[in-house]
Amino acid sequence: MTEWTRLPDLASRAVGGGVVWANDELFAERENLITAAEPVYQTYTFGHKGQIYDGWETRRRREPGVDQAVIRLGLPGVVRGVVVDTAFFKGNYPPFAWVEACSADGYPSADELTDWETIVPRSPLQGDQKHFFDVSSERRFTHVCLTIDPDGGVARLRVHGSPVADPRLLVPGIDLAALENGATVVDCSNRFYSSPNNLIAPGQATLMGEGWETARRRDSGNDWVSLRLAAPGVVTIAELDTSHFKGNSPGWASVSGCDTRKDPDTWFDLLPRTRLQPDTRHRFVVPDAPEATHARLDIYPDGGMARLRLFGTLTAQGQQELHDRWAERS
């Protein structure tokens, strides 16, 4: 066992990782690659496509080529080692695999990623076995690509390393939209599948049902949620988390603010209409925002979102309001 296996798994679903693309997943879903738990297997469990495997499995190739899966790291950072685990894949494991990595700003789609660097060269694999590969690159990576040659199944991909944070997203303050800090949902356009209160609940959503999801729109409008912030403040970071929403996330979203102490009818941009990716925790810098007492999230045209976070600093009045609210009930 190598020392780097004690480092965090930067790709794990538990820290926000996601498999953003795979060219094939006919027999077993790509998302299994980054499940935090160890793979399991139960004999004679057959679905419509054959034996059910806890991993990623592609169909048998009948022409030259390779299969690939692209993973967005939940924690971008320096990779020290990679584990390719073929647990329980015995007659259907890929004979070879390699891993590439890249660094991208923002939230590109898989086909927009460039500047790939090979961090694990083409290497032979065995069935039902963990394979450990040292990585020597000192670059900060945000995505990795696993290539299997020519096809087959991989149970887990572990990408161990040291997180390197983006300093632009590190600011002091509190989540002004957090339910636990006193924020409340004022109204919303649709709550067909789940409550908008889920958007501002504590912690990360662990499955799709823990977010907010609307019915499918058949008109030209869009869905929205309005919030009263915990107290008056200035938003500096907006986090829009579509984790677990894969085929039903919004295509775009915007966030606006309002200071009802001055004018309850005037709204200003905190985050202009921005493209979103499925199953992704998006974080955006909000520069030079005015003070706000309320916020509104618009999603276009509909869909689901796991969490909305609006990090910022309280105004002097906001600090006093929170103190008074607490003192009156203590």
What distinguishing features does this structure have?
seven-stranded antiparallel sheet, 1 helix, 2 domains, Jelly Rolls, EC 3.5.3.4, mainly beta, Probable allantoicase
Number of helices: 1
Strand content: 35-45%
So what's the overall shape?
A: elongated
For the largest beta-sheet, the strand count, sense and barrel status come to: 8 strands, antiparallel
Explain this structure to me?
This protein is mainly beta. It has 2 domains: 3-165, Galactose-binding domain-like (Jelly Rolls, Sandwich), CATH 2.60.120; 169-328, Jelly Rolls, CATH 2.60.120.260. The protein has one helix at residues 316-328, and strands spanning 18-22, 46-47, 50-51, 56-57, 67-85, 96-102, 117-124, 130-134, 140-149, 153-154, 156-163, 174-175, 184-188, 212-213, 223-241, 252-258, 267-275, 281-285, 292-300, 304-305, 307-314. Strands 12, 13, 15, 16, 17, 18, 19 and 21 form an 8-stranded antiparallel beta sheet that branches. A hairpin with an 8-residue loop joins strand 16 and strand 17.
